[in-house]
């Protein structure tokens, strides 16, 4: 072996010794991060469903128009007791967001019905977001306790 080769071999040995511990610590250190990441990933791989239900009085028809950035789900006029729903898989990269415009008589509301958000994940019990239109506002069902909670008020005008 000439000098260059000896030096080079020594250099490689030192590299192997110093780099190996770094790799070990970097893969064991963010354990919690990996856990969160996996949870998030499994939520996103699920199929979710958003439901909109008309629970208003006096046979009022509810106009529902829901959209995402990529999809327009169309206008649906729901009679009392009727539900409109759709299912989807959230995007793995980037945000998933659906919002709806709802109206009856001379009142309306526009709001997000699904987004990549722990609050929504919990209320929807990791699968079904149930929005209920009533005379006094729009409610989101807390699936695990089966309680409807008011989330939005109706606004005057169309
Ligand atoms: C829904 O109702 C609105 C307002 O009453 C009406 O203009 C629209 O044509 C209806 N759309 C459908 C799809 O029935």
From TrEMBL:
<keyword id="KW-0964">Secreted</keyword>
<protein>
    <recommendedName>
        <fullName>S-protein homolog</fullName>
    </recommendedName>
</protein>
<dbReference type="Pfam" id="PF05938">
    <property type="entry name" value="Self-incomp_S1"/>
</dbReference>
<keyword id="KW-0713">Self-incompatibility</keyword>
<dbReference type="InterPro" id="IPR010264">
    <property type="entry name" value="Self-incomp_S1"/>
</dbReference>
<comment type="similarity">
    <text>Belongs to the plant self-incompatibility (S1) protein family.</text>
</comment>
<dbReference type="GO" id="GO:0005576">
    <property type="term" value="C:extracellular region"/>
</dbReference>
<feature type="signal peptide">
    <location>
        <begin position="1"/>
        <end position="27"/>
    </location>
</feature>
<dbReference type="GO" id="GO:0060320">
    <property type="term" value="P:rejection of self pollen"/>
</dbReference>
<keyword id="KW-0732">Signal</keyword>
């Amino acid at each position: 072996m000439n000098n260059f080769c000896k030096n080079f071999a020594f250099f490689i040995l030192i590299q192997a010794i110093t780099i190996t511990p770094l790799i070990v610590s970097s893969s064991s250190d963010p354990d919690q991060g990996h856990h969160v990441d996996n949870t998030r990933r499994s939520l996103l791989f699920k199929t979710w469903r958003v439901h909109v239900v008309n629970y208003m009085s006096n046979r009022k028809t509810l106009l529902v128009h829901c959209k995402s950035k990529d999809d327009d789900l169309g206008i649906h006029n729901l009679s009392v007791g009727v539900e409109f729903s759709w299912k989807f898989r959230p995007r793995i990269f980037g945000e998933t967001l659906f919002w709806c415009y709802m109206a009856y008589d001379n009142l309306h509301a526009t709001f997000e019905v699904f987004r990549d958000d722990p609050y929504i994940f919990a209320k929807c019990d990791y699968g079904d977001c149930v929005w209920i239109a009533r005379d006094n506002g729009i409610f989101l069902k807390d699936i695990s306790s089966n309680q409807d909670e008011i989330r939005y008020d109706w606004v005057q005008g169309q």
